[in-house]
Each structure stands twice: as structure tokens, then as C-alpha cells.
Amino acid sequence: MRSGTACRFRRWTSAWPISTSSCATSFANARPSGASRTRKLVARQPMRPIFRPGRDAMILRTGGCRCGEIRYALSAEPMFHIACHCRDCQYVAGGSPNLTMVFPADTLTVTQGQPRVFKAREASGGSYFCGTCGVHVFSRPDKNRSLVAVKVGGLDNASDFKVQADMWMASAPPWHRPHDGAMQFDQNPPG
């Protein structure tokens, strides 16, 4: 695990929602790759400043859908890189784990178009997608609107993406393999 990963993980999970839907439920069984016991993460570090689009923002990443109708900009570095294996994400990703980078929601600005939203069930959060080409671009949990999970495939440059956590491994089919060096959770990370 890279230096600082546990601290970044703690910052991310302290804000993660707890609900009953698959990508937003509490993570009870945290364990690093190859470990059989639950691991308690206790590293704490102050949150870094959040940039506000339009005020003090600097565009750090851009992305959009396949057809170009939806475009967005992000004014912060990702808090965490995840692979979600929950059933909802398998639908979105066509059977694969859903690869996302988690950002503070107020650092995302839709610069072109108007994404449509789909909710799989009440209080599960919304998956935002292009109404023309159907590509899912990001999602926001209802229980914590301060976070946004941006789909890696829609980013113009995601060359630095490396999975830091595999979540919802309890829902993963046998061909979903955990990523080397990534933390594993049966559901969502604790937090």
C-alpha cells in the first residue's frame, strides 16, 4: 500500500454514507488483500481545502460521455480510487466491476449538456448518464450528497488510476478478481 493511502482512506470513509442500498451501505468487514481478519483503520489527518468552481477553482481533470453531449470538469484531485462489485454497478458496467474515482461533489461542474439521472430504488442515490449515448458519467449517493463517484472510463486522462479498494466483494461473481494491493470489503468501507 502506498504511503498515505490509509490516511486518504480514512478521510474518504469518514464522509461515506450509511444506508441500506448496495453502494451506500455500511462496510462491516474491512480486510486487506490476503487477510482473514477485520482491519481497523484509525489514521486521521485534517481534510485538505476544497476548491469551489467559479471562485478559486483550477481545472485538474475533465471528462464526458462517448458522444460528447455531456462534458464536465473537476477542480480537485480524487479522494480515493475504487472498484465496486455490487449488483447495481455490475449492471452499469456491463458485468464488470465499476471503476470510479471519488471526489468532493462541489468540485464537479457539468460544463456542457444536462445529464439524466436514474435511481435503482428509493434512497439509493442517482446514476447520471447521457440521454443520447447512454454512457454513465458519475453517481451521487443520497445519504451523502457531498461525494460524487466519477466513472473512470469517462475521464479524458485516467492514466494515474490504480484501484485502492475493492468493495462489495460479497456480490462479486467468481470471475471478479480482487486487485493486487487493494483493500477488500464485503460491502462499503466502514465509516
TrEMBL record:
InterPro entries: CENP-V/GFA, Mss4-like_sf. The keyword Metal-binding applies. Residues 61-176 form the CENP-V/GFA domain. Keywords: Lyase, Metal-binding, Zinc. Gene3D superfamilies: glutathione-dependent formaldehyde- activating enzyme (gfa) (3.90.1590.10). GO terms for molecular function: carbon-sulfur lyase activity; metal ion binding. It comes from the Bacteria. Belongs to the Gfa family. This is CENP-V/GFA domain-containing protein. It comes from Caulobacter segnis. The lineage of its organism: Bacteria, Pseudomonadati, Pseudomonadota, Alphaproteobacteria, Caulobacterales.
